[in-house]
Structure formats: C-alpha cells, structure tokens
Amino acid sequence: MSTVKLLLPGHLRTLARVMGDIELAVDGAVTLRTTLDALEEKYPALLGTLRDHVSKQRRPFIRFFACERDLSFDSIDAPLPEAVVNGLEPLLVVGAIAGGV
Question: Which of the four, 36, 45, 75, 91, has the lowest number of CB atoms within 10 Å?
Fold first, then answer.
C-alpha cells in the first residue's frame, strides 16, 4: 500500500470539507485511476467533480500535475511518478482557467 499526497484547489477542499493536503492510501499499482478511486471513496462529495460519473473521463477544465509534468493527457492507467508513489511529491489537481474578451 502506498500513501499519495494530493493537493486540491480551494473550492474542492471546501466541498470535501478538508484543510490542506490530503493523504490517500492506494492499494496496488498507483495510477491516476486508482488514486482518484481512493479519493472518491474517501470523499464521496467529490464524485463527478474531477471526472465524469459514467465514462470516468477527466472533466475538461481539470488538470493533473506531478513532478513538474502535466499528466492530464497520459493514460489514466499509467503509473504515477515514483516520487508521488513514495510520498515525496504531491499530485496536484488544478482547475484550468478559461476566458476571453
């Protein structure tokens, strides 16, 4: 079992009723899928906020970063970087900002 540190944007921390970083126990391979599964299991209020209820696809304005890399378009089943798996680096969830004139 691995412990993954997760940083959520403020509005999602409020929804989940947490302060600061989240530490998640992830069984087996540590991938974006297994990490998000663990997050949604521990904080059911977040169901559907990061990924679609049915397809489990990432929501359009949500991005995932770790170790100075954008993981948003990687396979959801690709292993997360070792530094994240070992708890040395956090997995960042970022709400993208869109706008225009």
Answer: 75
User: Looking at the domain assignment, is residue 76 inside a domain?
Assistant: yes
Read off the tokens for 22: 């989240």
Per-residue pLDDT tens for 33-77? 999 999 999 999 999 999 988 888 888 889 999 999 999 999 999
| In contact, 90 and 84? CB cutoff 8 Å | yes
Please tell me the total count of domains within the chain.
1
* Greatest Cα-to-Cα distance within the chain, rounded to the nearest angstrom: 48
Q: Using the structure block, give the residue that is written with the tokens 């397809």.
A: 55
The answer to whether position 10 is within a domain reads yes
Q: Please answer whether residues 17 and 45 qualify as being in contact, where contact means their C-beta atoms are separated by less than 8 angstroms.
A: yes
Whole-prediction pTM: 0.88
